[in-house]
Amino acid sequence: MKRVLSIILGGGAGTRLYPLTKVRAKPAVSLAGMYRLIDIPVSNCLNSDILKIYVLTQFNSASLNRHISKAYNFSTFSDGFVEVLAAQQTPDSPSWFEGTADAVRKYMWMFEEADIDEFIILSGDHLYRMDYSDYVRKHRESGADVTLSVVPIGYKTASSFGLMKVDDNNRIVEFAEKPKGDELEAMKVDTTAMGLSAEEAADKPFIASMGIYVFKKQVLMDLLKNNPEQTDFGKEIIPGAAKDYNVQAYLFNGYWEDIGTIEAFYNANLALTDQPNPAFSFYSEDAPIYTRSRYLPPSKIEDCHVTESIISEGCILKKCRIHNSVIGLRQRIHANCEIDSALLIGSDYYEKMDEQGEFPVSPDNPNHIPIGIGEGSVIRRAIIDKNARIGRNVQIINKDNIDEVEREADGYYIRSGIVVVLKNAVIPDGTII
Asked: All domains of the chain, ordered by start, with CATH?
């Protein structure tokens, strides 16, 4: 795999994940309490022996840069690297990235100098574990110019994806972007030919693109140079290439989740707590998910009732009830709190507290609300972003069952019925949301 260069697309402004992307790039959003979204594709690359990795981004990339520089350091005897390439204006290219293909095109002057045979193009907001080396080998064996990784899906989600049809040789012969009705029915394929059982094929009669592509080096350069008006891989470049190039499908039949929306992100995180076997597990010796080493102390739990939850490092939890929740790094939860079906992303730093999690009250600031969850508070179906200060006896429960609301001045949004408390927000004592 030394002849493969990975390009991870960091996405645009991340509007579907806002407000979690208000102050950070989408790949830098926290995952599973202690990881970042970017750790998934980078770890898949490392586990597949693909060690040349670029991450393209253009929005709020400071924390992403910091995370990558601290997490992924290669030996001086290796030619491996993980490097962020941010959008930049030049005399030849005065505009910002205008799409997935345009982002790669604007750095093609750098990529074309690489001594490689293939590019693998990845997304920065998916949760899955894949051996890319098998993917690249199948690409080479088929003689493909371009290979798309696809997943079998059913009727429930089919209209939300770009679908395709393949011939007997797995060559892609037809595309349809988010089809409905008769157009959807026309995109059904026999997925048993791609390795599914008859039962699985009946349940999942469509194949959808995962947004993961392998290109021969020269093919990618030609497609980007010869089609300067095309800015998106999935909607323009690849459907257009199918006419003149051998575009193959590679079936991936494992767990894969697009977590680019607040609801999908929330559900994917909480699904990690499922017992006994979650759909995706971070517990794999053969294909670990890497992240930054923080050297935090173990979590301290005093007289708590914790069920079906994940507790990250450096937390202090005191006489509270936690169920079906993910608790992030350095989180403080005080006595008599109830945390149910919530994602608490944690904190970037410790405040001056004792080891019982108590904050020494200062006469100069008696109303200070410390970072963490104050005594007697209740949090249900919510995401609490980093460094948030939740006062005493606060209820974050979406009491009015609102689907969507923007209350940035008050420190929170509601997305798909999920309350999202902003990073660094302060929620005063007694507040009910």
From this structure: 4-271 (3.90.550.10), 300-427 (2.160.10.10)
